[in-house]
Amino acid sequence: MEGCRILVIGGGIGGLTAAIALRGRGAVVDVIERDPDWSVYGVGIIQQSNVVRAMKALDLLDDYLDAGFGFDEIFVFLPSGEPVATLKAPGLVEGYPANVGIGRRALHKVLGDRTIGAGATVRLGTTATALDDDGEGVDVAFSDGSRSRYDIVVGADGLYSQTRRMVFPEAPEPAFTGQAVWRYNFARPADLAGMHVYEGPIGVGLIPLSADLMYMYVTTPEPGNPRYPRHGLAATMRAKLAGMPPAIAALAEQITDDDAVVYKPLEWLLLDGPWHKGRVVMLGDAVHATTPHLGQGAGMAIEDSIVLAEELARAETPEAGFRAFRDRRYDRCLYIVRESLALCRGQIGQGPRVEQGKAAHDMFAVTAAPI
Predict the structure, then answer these.
(1) What is the pTM of this model?
(2) Percentage of the chain exceeding pLDDT 90
(3) Which residues pair with residue 77 across a beta bridge?
């Protein structure tokens, strides 16, 4: 792959880890990102031991952990607040924690700094407006009027991927699940050193992000996919937590800043067919977007990036590498999408209830397998 010119479309988690992995194999990498400010959506993210292992493979582990909060235990509670289980997540890197909570901005800085430090070029406020694949390379037209030619194009532009729409215009669009997630940051109490999960129709989790910070997620049924105005959003989130146990009710009183509330309808997508066409390939949410119930959306994109770089490095042609990449990734990503969706549907009464502790235990076993 030495000297191969690759364009990565999308400057989020999947795109940046792809750029790092591909640069590590000697490719010349350009990254384009539509957001001119390279801003970050969301508050925090939980990542499990398979991501810790992946960060080690990318030589990012120490920087990553310095930016987040490592922990091993997950505490599960009934809707009443009664504790029912404590799970000790299996670690995959000796001497390191099994799970990491990390602010999305902190993670973005780690990945962005390494992408640029590795020698990739990042262009902000830029999109690809046309991809002309002639079989030998891809001529790309950009929104700023420039053009360039690449050996490979990687679409890592997320759930609403414009790359997917250009390459596979017949592909399905993301499907709304009937549920949404609310997120909010809080000061972390000293005794919250692991993840706390509250089961029930309203799912709640508390995840440490740093020595001083944690975030709450709340999953709620949202029939009809309503859109809430920004003004009053904090009060709306508080109302969703009515009747929760005392520990959560006390935190709900602190939800006062409309602009600090992050609300997101939950959607999913799985591309059953090929994840590439010609010399254009896609990864992450562009081809297998999951709900967050197993905390593996970003993890799947990060693993994708490593596998794609490995397969391209050993393949005789880009298309052979793309096929091998999808073959290694499909079953694992299908599992995460399917089982996350089952948890979601169970919470909103559209399917049988799934016990959170067992689902997490099973997920740890699957993701502990080599990628």
Answers:
(1) 0.96
(2) 92
(3) 83, 198
